[in-house]
Design brief:
This protein is mainly alpha-helical. The protein has 6 helices and 3 strands. The protein has a 3-stranded antiparallel β-sheet with strand order 1-3-2. It is globular and about 55 Å long.
């Protein structure tokens, strides 16, 4: 059986990349287990609720599809499930007749608040209690750089795409 490469044997960029993938996977699984156990709420549902809780107004469904790590069809299924549980409402958009807007209900805000506390509790021993302020700031800097580069790349690719129609 081939041996596993050590950090010293890997290029720094590869080690950093796999570290990001590993950390994201492990923390997401940890949070998902805690949310499902405590609230019967998968992490994908929580992610949609997080975006809704962060907005003072109802959010167009298309914005949720562009903002979350979920596909538009996944967002639609999650919103359906949340609506069935009475945690969100869907209303026709006053600005665009083809669009719907999604908002947390009072019950949804209550569940979100409890679930957010569960998320923070699940992450504390492996994230916020482990890392100091400089570590967290460094991660924030890395995330902003990666996100900005991704947005610039998407914009550049969009500029090269011929218009439809």
């Amino acid at each position: 059986m081939p041996k596993k490469l050590t950090e010293a044997e890997m290029p720094a960029a590869d080690y950093a990349f796999y570290g990001l993938v590993w950390a994201g996977t492990v923390m997401t699984e940890r949070v998902d287990r805690a949310l499902v156990k405590a609230h019967d709420l998968p992490v994908s549902w929580f992610e949609v609720m997080l975006w809704l809780a962060s907005s003072p107004e109802p959010v167009p469904a298309s914005v949720l599809g562009n903002s979350t790590l979920l596909s538009r069809s996944q967002v639609s299924r999650v919103v359906d499930a949340l609506q069935t549980r009475g945690l969100v409402t869907r209303t026709p958009s006053a600005r665009d007749a083809r669009s719907v807007e999604v908002a947390l209900t009072e019950a949804g805000r209550t569940v979100f608040t409890a679930a957010d506390a569960t998320r923070r509790e699940a992450l504390a021993p492996v994230f916020t209690e482990l890392l100091d302020e400089r570590d967290l700031e460094a991660l924030g800097t890395v995330w902003r750089k990666l996100k900005a580069a991704n947005a610039a790349q998407a914009e550049q690719e969009g500029a090269r795409t011929p218009p439809r129609g």
